Amino acid sequence: MAVSLYERLGGTEGITRIASDLVDLHLANPRIAPRFADRDVAALKQGAGTFFISGTGGPAVYEGKDMLATHRGMNIDSSEFLAVLDDALKALDKNEIGQREKEEVLYILYSMKAHIVLV
């Protein structure tokens, strides 16, 4: 039986760590940090973790808005989107995630572009 991406990323513990690192990277990234001003960092990390766990085959149930509803009206441009992908890659590298898993995660994130950029 194939091992899920959720399991290969370290399960709930590993993905929670990756999501936390990702939010920290976003907050430190001058290209996208203003998007997160005055936001509840703990809630951002929790939401990102739950979304990520759910989307990789884990047991969490994401109850937040979908990507289109979340990003509608924000006018996120392609360079901001790429900054998010760069941060995701850094978070995965920091957590010593393998190349195959990094490619799968980036593929999933990139597949959401139409629901995020200029919507």
Automatic annotation (TrEMBL):
Keywords: Heme, Iron, Metal-binding, Transport. InterPro entries: Globin-like_sf, Globin/Proto, Globin_bac-like_CS, Hemoglobin_trunc. Coiled coil: none annotated. It holds the Pfam family Bac_globin. The lineage of its organism: Bacteria, Pseudomonadati, Pseudomonadota, Gammaproteobacteria, Alteromonadales. Its cofactor is heme. It comes from Ferrimonas gelatinilytica. PROSITE patterns: GLOBIN_FAM_2 (PS01213). This is Group 1 truncated hemoglobin.
